[in-house]
């Protein structure tokens, strides 16, 4: 089995750029810490827990507004990955994902940061039926249909991003991330998987494209079994290079094909539409 396409020698950003990476100690943050510097970015790292092997990283909670002001001061852009990435109680989601995202945006506005890349999720539209047969790919214009409090918080983040663009001119690319892991771990992920290398390509495009206003894009690789439309992501200059199909034979042999009669397989959000959700993404 071949590995995903390695990251090529990237074209650096048009000018030296400092980017605040929130959630830098998390799974996706750790992957991006290793990949984004090759694009010419100097990363300023932030997490609520110490970032391993990064003595200069900032340790602060998203509820600490003063710390967030310090963290965003002088940066060119923010990649906002921090928050709870699984379903949790509404109170926990409210503090981390809703109030925390507001605090981050308000700090960015106050310090004159001009662009944010916001980690949204497929779970913002999780109750959308998945395409079958000749059905068209799911467009980014699909209405919000969150499948969890977690998904609801991502709807809030997208709407907050729109508000900060309309009201204050703070640009955002909201990336509805599918499943970003070194390789997919379920048959469902064959449709939503985004390789870490493609994720870095998409984040780079989101940071450097002109005139994004508030744009919503789906984040996945160029998967043979793709469920959603990548047109708006490609409009940023994103060119995915990986495909989950190389993992399909093994996963289908272990798990079987998706079953249309299984409610976990009927919607974009997978098992997040059931209670309790059973899959990580």
Q: What this model shows, in words?
A:
The chain has 281 residues and is of the alpha/beta class. The protein has one domain: NAD(P)-binding Rossmann-like Domain (Rossmann fold), CATH 3.40.50. It contains nine helices and seven strands, in the order βαββαβαβαβααβααα. A seven-stranded parallel beta sheet has the order 3-2-1-4-5-6-7, sandwiched between helices. Helix 2 packs across helix 3.
Topology:
Layout (H helix, E strand, L loop, with lengths): L16 E6 L4 H9 L5 E7 L10 E2 L5 H8 L4 E4 L9 H21 L4 E7 L27 H20 L2 E7 L11 H4 L3 H13 L5 E6 L11 H5 L12 H8 L7 H4 L15
Parallel strand pairs: 1-2, 1-4, 2-3, 4-5, 5-6, 6-7
Kindly list the characteristics that best describe this protein:
single chain, 281 residues, alpha/beta, Rossmann fold, seven-stranded parallel sheet, 9 helices, 33% helix, globular
Give the neighbour order of strands across the main sheet.
3-2-1-4-5-6-7
CATH homologous superfamily name? Answer: NAD(P)-binding Rossmann-like Domain
Query: What's the CATH topology name?
Result: Rossmann fold
Helix/strand order, N-terminal first? EHEEHEHEHEHHEHHH
Please identify the structural class as seen in this structure: alpha/beta
Short overview:
This protein is α/β, with parallel strands linked by helices and 281 residues long. It has helices at residues 27-35, 65-72, 90-110, 149-168, 189-192, 196-208, 231-235, 248-255, 263-266; strands spanning 17-22, 41-47, 58-59, 77-80, 115-121, 171-177, 214-219.
